[in-house]
Design brief:
Layout lengths: L27 H7 L9 E7 L7 E2 L7 E3 L4 H11 L3 E6 L17 H12 L4 E6 L13 E2 L2 E2 L2 H17 L3 E4 L6 H11 L6 E8 L6 H7 L18 H14 L3 E5 L5 H10 L4 E5 L1 H12 L5 H15 L3 E4 L2 H11 L1
Parallel strand pairs: 1-3, 1-4, 1-12, 4-5, 5-8, 8-9, 9-10, 10-11, 11-12
Antiparallel strand pairs: 2-3, 6-7
Helix pairs in contact: 2-3, 3-4, 4-5, 7-8, 8-10
Length: 339
């Protein structure tokens, strides 16, 4: 048949079999051969909760399979993560003590700086990112300072800068401000640069919605607000244009990466951000998303591996370069088993 001419039937029209999209879906080998999106383990970031004290790792009931570790546990955990193929972690600290200012958050000997040092000693090639917020360290549980019953912005940004510097001093590769204070990226960049940490990257939680999917995380971090909620500073999930303004602001302030959270309810924002920004994009598959999939799998409603791969694949397809997920180690294991 001459090149460029469509297949025809005897009547001269296009053949009904000229385009059969199912041809490349026929076998697993063909489907894998032409798959447009892969969920590679190197793109997954594993959240790690670090608590003070000693003892064995503690299970978190609302997050089955997720543990709170002590600093002493991190040497063994870091080696295991490297062996499994996980390449990056996002650290969250549990406070040793709480006060209205959250002072333990920027203590040089706090659990997160200790954890960073321990991981870097054990596995220097792991990318270590740290969450920068005050909610787990304050008696009121809010992400910034409270004055006369109101979460204040600029003073909170200054404290967040102290936290970021403490983490960078310990050797963090990336700091990730999650408090949703206006100007927090610029504040962190200034504080880091003045402290000599020009090379420390900032992963901005640019679009962090006031979401119903954070409950298990707050159990893990013991960070539920003691009054009110976080809707005055976290984003309204109904607003897409505002989300893009948040991203634009963070990019202008010097963010090196930007993130949306929760992942599965932000696919449209990922797609829009992918078209607009050249920066690496991240998405956080949050604790509630993880817990729902675990509960559905435990009750036999879904196949866990298939559901995890589908949801993570959707997040990658929407445009995420990196995904923070509690399933990172599971995906690594499944990848090894498939070899």
């Amino acid at each position: 048949m001459p090149r460029g001419k469509p297949a025809t039937n005897r009547g001269g029209g296009p053949s009904p079999t000229a385009t059969r999209l199912r041809r490349l879906r026929r076998t697993a080998a063909l489907r894998n051969w032409v798959a447009e999106t892969d969920v590679d383990v190197r793109r997954l970031v594993y959240p790690v909760f670090v608590r003070p004290g000693r003892g064995s790792p503690e299970p978190i009931p609302s997050l089955p399979g997720v543990l709170r570790y002590t600093v002493r546990d991190l040497d063994a955990l870091s080696h295991r993560l490297e062996e499994e193929g996980v390449r990056s972690v996002l650290l969250f600290g549990v406070a040793r003590s709480k006060d209205p200012e959250g002072r333990d958050a920027w203590a040089a000997d706090g659990v997160v700086p200790q954890a960073v040092r321990a991981i870097k000693r054990a596995a220097s090639d792991l990318v270590v990112a740290t969450d920068v917020c005050l909610c787990a360290y304050t008696t009121h549980g809010h992400c910034g300072l409270v004055r006369n019953g109101v979460v204040v912005n600029d003073a909170s940004v200054e404290r967040l800068g102290r936290v970021a510097v403490a983490h960078a001093n310990a050797g963090a590769d990336v700091v990730a401000p999650s408090a949703m204070m206006d100007g927090q990226v610029a504040g962190l960049r200034d504080a880091l640069d003045r402290a000599g940490h020009e090379s420390t990257a900032i992963l901005a939680y640019s679009t962090k919605h006031a979401s119903s999917f954070y409950g298990p995380f707050r159990d893990a971090e013991q960070s539920t607000p003691s009054f009110g909620d976080r809707r005055s500073y976290q984003m309204d999930f109904r607003n897409a244009r505002e989300a893009l303004r948040e991203m634009e602001r963070d990019v202008a302030e010097g963010a090196d990466l930007i993130m949306v959270k929760p992942a599965i309810t932000s696919l449209d924002l990922l797609a829009r951000a992918r078209r607009r920004f050249p920066l690496p994009l991240a998405a956080y598959q949050v604790s509630g998303e993880y817990a729902m999939l675990k509960a559905a799998a435990a009750s036999g409603v879904v196949d866990e591996r298939a559901a995890v791969e589908e949801t993570l694949g959707a997040v990658r397809r929407a445009g995420a370069d990196l995904i923070v997920t509690y399933f990172a180690r599971d995906v690594a294991r499944w990848s090894r088993e498939a070899r």
